[in-house]
Design brief:
- The structure holds two protein chains of two kinds.
- By secondary structure, chain A is mostly beta strands.
- Chain A is built from no helices and eleven strands.
- In chain A, β4 and β5 form a beta hairpin.
- Chain A is globular.
- The termini of chain A are far apart.
- By secondary structure, chain B is mainly beta.
- Chain B contains no helices and eleven strands.
- In chain B, the strands form two sheets. In chain B, strands 2, 4, 5, 9, 10 and 11 form a six-stranded mixed β-sheet that branches.
- In chain B, β6 and β7 form a beta hairpin.
- Classes of the chains: A mainly beta, B mainly beta.
- Chains A and B meet through β5 and β10 of A and β5 and β10 of B.
């Protein structure tokens, strides 16, 4: 899991601003995922991508957008339309359709709206 | 879609005791069930997983059991140690659609010395 990096570690946003969270992996994984974690809520899937230039909405996609222009990168934009963006955001990746389904997580970005 | 329920939400044990965390899932097509451990402020890390063609799997002090008929699976930790204190998440992956993981809400395990 050391092959997945997220930046920044902490991010502060004013209301009405869009912010972009970075996720990069050098594991040659096909699939990448974004999760949101709130206390007592577990991990909820925001968006995922199984190949370059393709992505699907997860359970809580409203107010978020993503792109997948390169296999190694899957940035997440938290838009001003997201009503309650303060949370811990985790990126993950795995080999889609491979012998192992293990998802490896990045270290996370903690976003706080001021 | 898949729904995963996890119990209990918190669990306190004495060092050396066993701990059991239980999860149920709704989609009978689910075929992969990982367990993750997350320490405070850190990333979740896989500790053990099981596939639907296996009923039990062990790794030292950790074991997972799966009952496909009842659609539930459990994590067993024996001889608990203070460093086992963390939040544990179960998850299930459906074999239909895009095969994403659905997570339970987590169990905070506290092991007291």
């Amino acid at each position: 899991d050391g092959g997945i990096t997220q930046s920044p570690k902490y991010l502060f946003r004013k209301e009405g601003q869009n912010v972009t969270l970075s996720c990069e992996q050098n594991l040659n994984h096909d699939a990448m995922y974004w999760y949101r974690q709130d206390p007592g809520q577990g991990l909820r899937l925001i968006y995922y991508s199984q190949i370059v230039n393709d992505f699907q909405k997860g359970d809580i996609a409203e107010g978020y957008s993503v792109s997948r222009e390169k296999k190694e990168s899957f940035p997440l934009t938290v838009t001003s339309a997201q009503k309650n963006p303060t949370a811990f955001y985790l990126c993950a990746s795995n080999i889609y359709g491979g012998a192992t389904d293990t998802q490896y997580f990045g270290p996370g970005t903690r976003l706080t709206v001021l | 879609g898949e729904n995963v329920e996890q119990h209990p939400s918190t669990l306190s044990v004495q060092e050396g005791d066993s701990a059991v965390i239980k999860c149920t899932y709704s989609d009978s097509a689910s075929n992969y069930f990982p367990w993750y451990k997350q320490e405070l402020g850190k990333r979740p890390q896989l500790i053990i997983d099981i596939r639907s063609n296996v009923g039990e799997k062990k790794d030292q002090r950790i074991a997972v059991t799966l009952n496909k008929t009842a659609k539930h699976f459990s994590l067993h930790i024996t001889e608990t140690q203070p460093e086992d204190s963390a939040v544990y998440f179960c998850a299930a992956r459906s074999n239909s659609g895009y095969s994403t993981l659905t997570f339970g809400k987590g169990t905070m395990l506290l092991v007291s010395p």
